[in-house]
Amino acid sequence: MGAHPKGDAVIRDNRIPQQTLGQWIADNPGCLGAKVKDTFDGQLPFLFKVLSVNTALSIQAHPNKELAAKLHTQFPEHYPDTNHKPEMAIALTPFEGLCGFRPVEEIVSFLQTIPELRALIGDVAAEQLERSVSDDPRGVSAALRVCFTRMMKSEKKFFVDQLNMLVKRISQEAAEGKDTSGSNGELLLRLHSQYPGDIGCFTIYFLNLVRLEPGEAMFLGANEPHAYLHGDCIECMACSDNTVRAGLTPKFIDVLTLCEMLNYTPAPSSSKIFPATQSQLDPSVYLYDPPVPDFTLMRIEIPSSIKLYLVSAVDSASILLVIQGTAVGTSTAAASEMTLRRGSVLFISANESISLHLSSPEGMLLFRACCLL
């Protein structure tokens, strides 16, 4: 949902002459709101998605603006635009992802108990990381960069052999009823069954496993390594399609760029959960306001006791998605009333509001993406 040239949203109302959202915005740039229009050169600055992750999505990171411009110039077929792509995922169901580097003590512990992992990295790099624990943070990041890069660049035949040995060993332990949680056994076997022989299987020993409950979010800034593993989520991001991938994927992989660009700052998995704040003005609205200007998300939970609800005006264009419940929407800007149900998507111009006449006994759950500068 958005106006990126590779996936410009189609307008379903056949009374409107423009066929896509991008065309409509180009002809009505005032709909963005004055600040958004000036800041983002007349473009809608965000992309809004729903993801349903059954098999893991690739190990990836998104470049900052400087790197995006460079990659686009060098490899336009792989990096289609010059924008950064910070993103946020909000869980709709229990959701699992890998995100950011684990605390270094956890990585060291895996290196000491998983010989197949240590073999890929080599004793010299592993010992350097073990010694760095008492170092200043820069020393830790430098040692972590060496370890992760050595693993990601290891020779295909060698890492496939090590991976097969590890999978075989953990499968046997699991069959004997042993606890394999100390080597992330369940996740390793699951990823290996989805992507056999893929180097991405080893990244579970470097990256935090983050579990989100519905309504919880994670924010991924530039150069943050991540992979979504399982579950449904709402996702919002800057309007870009730049992704540097390095594993768990059949798509183009760019290990060199990924290892160069990553943020090698370890942090506990709990720090990856991004908090929502309840709106001061409307108790039904929870705001997810990331540290980038391109987008803000709102979760709107309308209780069943409310039969008339006003989706209030903001000074930015926004996209509204219905997850649960039904209503009839009216707006001074719309030619006729709109029937809203699960899966309905509305584009709302800046400074416009919508009245919802709720018709479902269970209330409503909506998500709204906008740009609050």
From TrEMBL:
<dbReference type="Pfam" id="PF20511">
    <property type="entry name" value="PMI_typeI_cat"/>
</dbReference>
<dbReference type="InterPro" id="IPR011051">
    <property type="entry name" value="RmlC_Cupin_sf"/>
</dbReference>
<feature type="binding site">
    <location>
        <position position="62"/>
    </location>
    <ligand>
        <name>Zn(2+)</name>
    </ligand>
</feature>
<dbReference type="InterPro" id="IPR014710">
    <property type="entry name" value="RmlC-like_jellyroll"/>
</dbReference>
<comment type="pathway">
    <text>Nucleotide-sugar biosynthesis; GDP-alpha-D-mannose biosynthesis; alpha-D-mannose 1-phosphate from D-fructose 6-phosphate: step 1/2.</text>
</comment>
<dbReference type="InterPro" id="IPR016305">
    <property type="entry name" value="Mannose-6-P_Isomerase"/>
</dbReference>
<keyword id="KW-0479">Metal-binding</keyword>
<dbReference type="InterPro" id="IPR046457">
    <property type="entry name" value="PMI_typeI_cat"/>
</dbReference>
<feature type="domain" description="Phosphomannose isomerase type I helical insertion">
    <location>
        <begin position="120"/>
        <end position="207"/>
    </location>
</feature>
<dbReference type="Pfam" id="PF01238">
    <property type="entry name" value="PMI_typeI_C"/>
</dbReference>
<feature type="active site">
    <location>
        <position position="245"/>
    </location>
</feature>
<comment type="similarity">
    <text>Belongs to the mannose-6-phosphate isomerase type 1 family.</text>
</comment>
<feature type="binding site">
    <location>
        <position position="87"/>
    </location>
    <ligand>
        <name>Zn(2+)</name>
    </ligand>
</feature>
<dbReference type="GO" id="GO:0008270">
    <property type="term" value="F:zinc ion binding"/>
</dbReference>
<feature type="domain" description="Phosphomannose isomerase type I C-terminal">
    <location>
        <begin position="287"/>
        <end position="327"/>
    </location>
</feature>
<dbReference type="GO" id="GO:0009298">
    <property type="term" value="P:GDP-mannose biosynthetic process"/>
</dbReference>
<dbReference type="InterPro" id="IPR046456">
    <property type="entry name" value="PMI_typeI_C"/>
</dbReference>
<feature type="domain" description="Phosphomannose isomerase type I catalytic">
    <location>
        <begin position="1"/>
        <end position="104"/>
    </location>
</feature>
<protein>
    <recommendedName>
        <fullName>Mannose-6-phosphate isomerase</fullName>
        <ecNumber>5.3.1.8</ecNumber>
    </recommendedName>
</protein>
<dbReference type="Pfam" id="PF20512">
    <property type="entry name" value="PMI_typeI_hel"/>
</dbReference>
<dbReference type="InterPro" id="IPR001250">
    <property type="entry name" value="Man6P_Isoase-1"/>
</dbReference>
<feature type="binding site">
    <location>
        <position position="60"/>
    </location>
    <ligand>
        <name>Zn(2+)</name>
    </ligand>
</feature>
<dbReference type="InterPro" id="IPR046458">
    <property type="entry name" value="PMI_typeI_hel"/>
</dbReference>
<keyword id="KW-0862">Zinc</keyword>
<keyword id="KW-0413">Isomerase</keyword>
<dbReference type="GO" id="GO:0005829">
    <property type="term" value="C:cytosol"/>
</dbReference>
<comment type="function">
    <text>Isomerase that catalyzes the interconversion of fructose-6-P and mannose-6-P and has a critical role in the supply of D-mannose derivatives required for many eukaryotic glycosylation reactions.</text>
</comment>
<dbReference type="GO" id="GO:0005975">
    <property type="term" value="P:carbohydrate metabolic process"/>
</dbReference>
<dbReference type="InterPro" id="IPR018050">
    <property type="entry name" value="Pmannose_isomerase-type1_CS"/>
</dbReference>
<dbReference type="GO" id="GO:0004476">
    <property type="term" value="F:mannose-6-phosphate isomerase activity"/>
</dbReference>
<feature type="binding site">
    <location>
        <position position="226"/>
    </location>
    <ligand>
        <name>Zn(2+)</name>
    </ligand>
</feature>
